[in-house]
Amino acid sequence: MKKKTYINGVGCISTQKTFDTVFLEEAAYNQNDTVLSIIKPDYKDFISPASSRRMAKGVKNGIVASALAMKDANTENVDMIISGTGMGCIEDSEKFLKNILDNNEEFLTPTSFIQSTHNTVGAQIALTLQCKGYNFTYVNGAISFESALLDAKMQIEEDEANTVLVGGIDENADYTLSLFKLAGFIKKEQDQPFNLLTETSPGVVYGEGASFFILENEKKENTYAEILDVEIINTLEENEVETQIVSFLKANQLQISDVDAVVLGFNGDATFDGYYKNLAENTFAQTPQLYYKHLSGEYNTASAFALWMASKIIKTQEIPEIVKVNQVEKPVYKTILLYNQYNGKNHSFTLLSK
Q1: 295-324 pLDDT, tens per residue?
Q2: Residue limits of the Beta-ketoacyl synthase-like N-terminal domain (predicted)?
Q3: What is the second-level CATH architecture of the domain 225-353?
């Protein structure tokens, strides 16, 4: 008998006020900036100022988000730490490369290099918690977080762990953003105001964030939701997504009508948002539809923000007006499906249940 996987704690640092609040009541939709920046927590409540000074913001946000998740789950120890990140500690990577150029490749301090690896966040959290268990970081583009989530779920199902800390972290860095703008990944200033649901221009509004979750094999009073299933598919055509969703739901003894809300990864890139529009207009026309990248921005692990949002909706049974795509409502939100893709690749489906 496979063990079930429950979300028992969540922590989220994002481009919105997602800490010290109930749920998105202070969220604001910024339609003028092409890059959204993190709303910083008070780091000194979680990290000593001496350590904090040497840490990149992605590491700090990861530590704070994981601490919030653990506090929320009322736990002090975890068996494993599994994280996903697309760009890793890109700020420190840039710093190190800049130092190489500025110093003609001589007299370099290794600190930035040491802290520029993708697994720095998982390592720092492990040091903070003194967790000597399995510690793994997935770097897998837009499905980095789902890869971590799938691993965590399998560890719990196979009874390898009782409590797993799993999360997704990405940070912005100036030089990388300037390259993204040159490459046309980010929207042009002159295309504002940006309305992600009706965009006709290519590119996205970029963001950053860190979301962590405590997954456990037992249901508790503070449980948010059960993770029923996670599926990752590399390439799908627009007309194949519906068939894939139907078979994904069928594998979990569900059908389209059983889905109480669907969370779609609209990011305003007119070239690829057809994947979501297709589903919104046809497959899920009678289902409450939600979106989130207008609040979080697009980044490799933005889907972790979506999972945080969906967990909150199942627990509070309320959907904030700011995340609604349509006005369909259900009396109760028991089953939520999350679907995300990036540039037509790396499709992920995550199924949550009350």
Answers
A1: 999 999 999 999 999 999 999 999 999 999
A2: 47-219
A3: 3-Layer(aba) Sandwich (3.40)
